[in-house]
Amino acid sequence: MKIYTRKGDQGETQLIGKRVKKTNDRVEAYGTIDELNCFVGVGISILDGTKHTDLLADLTKIQHELFDIGGDLANVKENKDIVTDEEIVPYLENRIDAYWDEAPPLKTFILPGGNALSANLHVCRAITRRAERNVLIINDDIPIPQVIIKYLNRLSDFFFAAARAVNARENIKDIPYERGRDVFK
User: Fold this and answer.
1) Is pTM, for the whole model, over 0.85?
2) What is the pLDDT of residues 82-128, one digit of tens each?
3) How far apart are CA 130 and CA 173, in angstroms?
4) Would 43 be classed as within a structural domain?
5) Residue ranges making up the domain that contains 112
6) Looking at the 3D structure of the chain, how many domains does it have?
């Protein structure tokens, strides 16, 4: 079997249930989810599995969930089954709270950074926000399962909390945004 089919040479691709232009909002949304999944993979490749066993497990779980979400976004069939499980949101909220508690209290915005892992998690946070916006564009016309919208909203918070926890574990101080005001109370 060859990996190329030549079917996309005219700027179209196949969703589950319909052929569309590659510029379609759904293609943009699940493409951004795929990009995010790749950056999560980068994070996994640079983390120290002995120091961050919990984060390794969480990121691997997130990669599987992102594949589920990508598949759900690519499925335009009328009576489709949603693969994305409702339980992923409360689980993610638990993990956000755990990582958030590891870092010192925060009053102002911080600059994205720290070590390579933390910086990568900030990149994941920003890509997640873009993915969320892309999904909301689709949702304006065709309802998207609420679990996907909630999950993406929490996922960006997860990456922020995890990035701060990594810095705290490595004794790296967050750098406050100089001209910022207190935003966290």
Assistant:
1) yes
2) 889 889 999 999 999 999 999 999 988 999 999 999 999 999 999 99
3) 27
4) yes
5) 18-169
6) 1
